[in-house]
From TrEMBL:
Keyword Oxidoreductase: yes
Pfam families reported in the protein's UniProt record: adh_short
Molecular-function GO terms, alphabetical: oxidoreductase activity, acting on NAD(P)H, oxygen as acceptor
Family: Belongs to the short-chain dehydrogenases/reductases (SDR) family.
Record organism: Thiothrix fructosivorans
Keywords on record: Oxidoreductase, Plasmid
Lineage: superkingdom: Bacteria
SUPFAM superfamilies given in the database record: NAD(P)-binding Rossmann-fold domains
Stored PANTHER family: BENZIL REDUCTASE, CHAIN DEHYDROGENASE, PUTATIVE (AFU_ORTHOLOGUE AFUA_4G08710)-RELATED
Keyword Nucleotide-binding attached: no
Record's protein name: SDR family NAD(P)-dependent oxidoreductase
Length: 263
């Protein structure tokens, strides 16, 4: 059962020795995932444009005694293909490997009906939420395929709804992208685990900005919902690939068992 993944707790040091790239790692869900990966032994590369907040996450990880992470400043709205190739090559040169990529970064500019959609905004939304993920994945693939147990996990969200516009199109496109990627790498000789996770509503800054009438404290914290991401990023997931894990909205006071073990 997919719901069981919310209760998953890795064994101690389950991700030890792995290098995992997390996009949008400075805050929100990305911060929670990056911290949890480090908690279980991974060296995390935090990609984000918000350097100050990334540094705060870096300090929290180091102060907790987890493996020292790395910060890679990058704005996915304006980055070029070369920027992503440079990123992948730098990770491999500095850390010697790349075992996982967590595609978490996202941007929802506005809720707008199609007939009023600004074309420049549309282009920016598609770039951040779809095309940038392709560029990053394409650059990282050669190094991922060198790893013994490589994984890509995408933070999905059901968005094919009225007024979601380019965000909804990009999210649907990424679901298809992950399906294609999983199907192309499901053979033992070049296996790559590719899965998507939709944890439903999360208490993040982006959600607060886009749902101003909602009480933020009525939404589950990111830290309570990291378990499915950890599962698919680690060896416990085995050859499970091409899955779309979708969860019901969790209560605001939800707590992950791994939080208690880390306290």
């Amino acid at each position: 059962m997919q719901e069981d993944l919310l209760a998953y707790v890795p064994s101690e040091n389950a991700l030890q020795g792995r290098v995992i790239l997390v996009t949008g790692a400075a805050a929100g869900m990305g911060k929670a995932i990056a911290t949890a990966c480090a908690q279980y032994g991974a060296t995390v590369v935090m990609l984000d444009k918000e350097v100050r907040r990334a540094e705060e996450t870096y300090d929290a990880i180091v102060n907790a005694g987890y493996p020292q992470p790395a910060i890679y400043p990058l704005d996915m709205q304006g980055a070029t293909a070369k920027d992503y190739y440079d990123l992948a090559e730098n990770i491999h040169a500095q850390l010697g490997r790349l075992d996982g990529v967590m595609l978490n970064a996202a941007w929802l500019g506005s809720f707008t009906p199609i007939n009023h959609y600004d074309t420049e905004l549309w282009s920016k939304m598609i770039m951040v939420n779809l095309h940038a993920n392709f560029l990053l994945t394409r650059a990282c693939l050669p190094f991922l395929l060198e790893a013994a147990d490589p994984a890509i996990v995408y933070a999905s969200h059901e968005s094919n709804k009225a007024y979601y516009g380019a965000f909804g199109v990009a999210k649907a496109g990424m679901e298809a992208f992950c399906d294609i990627l999983a199907a192309e790498h499901d053979e033992p000789s070049h296996f790559l685990r590719v899965n998507t996770v939709d944890t439903n509503a999360i208490r993040t800054g982006m959600r607060t900005l886009n749902f101003p009438g909602e009480n933020p404290n009525s939404v589950a914290r990111p830290e309570a919902l990291v378990a499915p991401y950890l599962f698919y990023l680690g060896a416990d997931a085995g050859k499970r690939t091409g899955e779309h894990a979708v969860f019901a909205r969790q209560p605001a006071d939800a707590r992950w068992a791994g939080e208690a073990s880390a306290a």
